[in-house]
């Protein structure tokens, strides 16, 4: 029976992207490089915003959380994905699969909601600059962020609970490179209508409301093209993958799209939003100058300090030897 088969599934096996050895090495190198750039860019942006008091504004507050979401989202999928490219054993425990999906879904939802919140912030800054500090106070910003995190976690928990209560009778092999709803629904022998309804109702609401909110805020002006670009790319790929019937799923096609939004988009976000910004450029230049000065003077100071420490240690040791 289905219930007995459900109990037998203790792990899933990823079939991956390719079985060609030469292609595997190329993909591993490419994925690792993209992930490292993503890690450095987003982590660097968070540190830069936290360190500079001039960037302690609502816009950069939301940008730091966007970078954090990108970092968590890509880390939930990336390392396991590119190590599986070369690994012989591509399995993941049942609980590990559920956890990977929960984390990735949570931060994907948070990013969707953050895009709408950032649009609202820019709308307030442009439409009513005099009251901007009141309408977007630190308390309001914190409440908006808390709301985004709570909704994201609640939505992810619902989808995770529904997906991992399905029966996987036929096989435990996932024709994909991470745990996601489309491949799990195709693998299941249960009725997945409730899962599909939940995706269309909850996830569809989050996606469409964030898109309509963004577009609604930007009808009056055309100064936020970078934000519109991000919304079009990120939301477009998610809509393509999730908001369609399971009968029309094409995992081979979805693999390419998923690669784009799991590694490429999180890497591009700091470039799209921040590196074009004059304040960020100015602070990056300051950081670059500090690093240059450290290379010139800091290294000498460190070597000087180390020499003093070595001399003191040597004198102490010499004194101990003489006493003995």
CATH architecture of the largest domain: Up-down Bundle
What is the domain total for the residues?
Answer: 2
Uncertain parts: 219-223
* Proportion in β-strands: under 5%
Rg estimate, integer Å:
25 Å
What's the total number of strands?
A: 3
Structural class: mainly alpha
CATH topology of the largest domain: Rhopdopsin 7-helix transmembrane proteins
Give the distance, in angstroms, between the N- and C-terminal Cα atoms.
81 Å
How would you name the CATH homologous superfamily of the largest domain? Rhodopsin 7-helix transmembrane proteins
What is the CATH domain class of the largest domain? Mainly Alpha
Element pattern in H and E: HEHHEHHHEHHHHH
| Tally of alpha and pi helices | 11
The oligomeric status of these chains comes to single chain
GO molecular function: G protein-coupled receptor activity; odorant binding; olfactory receptor activity
InterPro entries: GPCR_Rhodpsn (IPR000276), GPCR_Rhodpsn_7TM (IPR017452), Olfact_rcpt (IPR000725)
Protein name: Olfactory receptor
Keywords: Cell membrane, G-protein coupled receptor, Membrane, Olfaction, Receptor, Sensory transduction, Transducer, Transmembrane, Transmembrane helix
């Amino acid at each position: 029976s289905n219930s007995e088969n459900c109990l037998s599934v203790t792990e899933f096996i990823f079939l991956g992207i390719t079985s060609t050895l030469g292609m595997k090495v190329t993909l591993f190198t490419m994925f690792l490089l993209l992930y490292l750039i993503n890690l450095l860019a987003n982590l660097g942006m968070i540190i830069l915003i936290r360190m500079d008091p001039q960037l302690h504004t609502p816009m950069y507050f939301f940008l730091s959380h966007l970078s954090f979401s990108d970092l968590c989202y890509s880390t939930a999928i990336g390392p396991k994905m590119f190590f599986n490219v070369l690994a012989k054993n591509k399995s993941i425990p049942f609980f590990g699969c559920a956890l990977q999906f929960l984390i990735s879904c949570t931060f994907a939802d948070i990013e969707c909601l953050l895009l709408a919140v950032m649009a609202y912030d820019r709308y307030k800054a442009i439409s009513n600059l005099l009251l901007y500090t009141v309408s977007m106070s630190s308390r309001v910003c914190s409440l908006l962020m808390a709301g985004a995190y709570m909704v994201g976690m609640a939505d992810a928990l619902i989808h995770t609970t529904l997906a991992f209560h399905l029966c996987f009778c036929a096989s435990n092999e996932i024709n994909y490179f991470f745990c996601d709803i489309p491949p799990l629904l195709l693998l299941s022998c249960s009725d997945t209508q409730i899962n599909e309804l939940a995706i269309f109702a909850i996830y569809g609401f989050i996606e469409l409301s964030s898109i309509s909110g963004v577009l609604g805020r930007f009808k009056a002006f055309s100064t936020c093209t970078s934000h519109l670009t991000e919304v079009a790319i990120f939301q477009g790929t998610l809509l393509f993958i999730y908001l369609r019937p399971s009968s029309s799923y094409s995992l081979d096609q979805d693999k390419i799209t998923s690669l784009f939004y799991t590694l490429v988009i999180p890497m591009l976000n700091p470039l799209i939003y921040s590196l074009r910004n004059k304040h960020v450029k100015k602070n990056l230049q300051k950081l670059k100058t500090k690093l240059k000065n450290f290379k010139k003077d800091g290294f000498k100071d460190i070597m000087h300090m180390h020499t003093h420490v070595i001399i003191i240690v040597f004198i102490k040791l010499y004194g101990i030897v003489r006493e003995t």
